[in-house]
Write a structure and sequence with these properties.
This protein is an alpha/beta fold. The protein has a domain at 1-45 and 81-86: Response regulator (Rossmann fold, 3-Layer(aba) Sandwich), CATH 3.40.50.2300. It has helices spanning 14-30, 50-55, 82-98; strands at residues 2-8, 33-40, 43-45, 58-63, 76-80. Strands 3-2-1-4-5 form a 5-stranded mixed β-sheet. The two termini are 14 Å apart. This is PTS system fructose specific IIBC component, putative.
Length: 99
């Protein structure tokens, strides 16, 4: 399974990166290919390509601010906060499997 995740918080300092790391660890443990785009204080890091989006089976949005979802049309999207990703990243991946 290929999953894209976007992590974002208004300050773009700690929570963005901690959430990304928690998702990365959970994906690795589950054998899921994961690409993460981080919306941080310095801008967007790891900007997704059209090809990566096309190949993704699902999208996880772990954000405390608005994230434009128009580029993910027709994709399965699971949403949560950075706190959700930090405290229980596995649950976000389980939502993908349930939907």
């Amino acid at each position: 399974m290929k999953v894209i995740a976007i992590t974002a918080c208004p300050m773009g300092i700690a929570h963005t990166y901690i959430a990304a790391e928690a998702l990365r660890k959970a994906a690795y443990a589950k054998g899921i290919d994961l690409i993460i785009e981080k919306h941080a204080a310095l801008g967007i890091e790891g900007t997704l390509t059209e090809e990566e989006i096309k190949d993704a089976d699902a999208i996880i949005i772990a954000a405390d601010m608005h994230v434009d979802l128009t580029r993910f049309k027709d994709k399965k999207i699971v949403t949560g906060t950075t706190a959700d990703a930090i405290s229980n990243a596995d649950a976000l991946f389980e939502k993908i499997e349930l939907e």
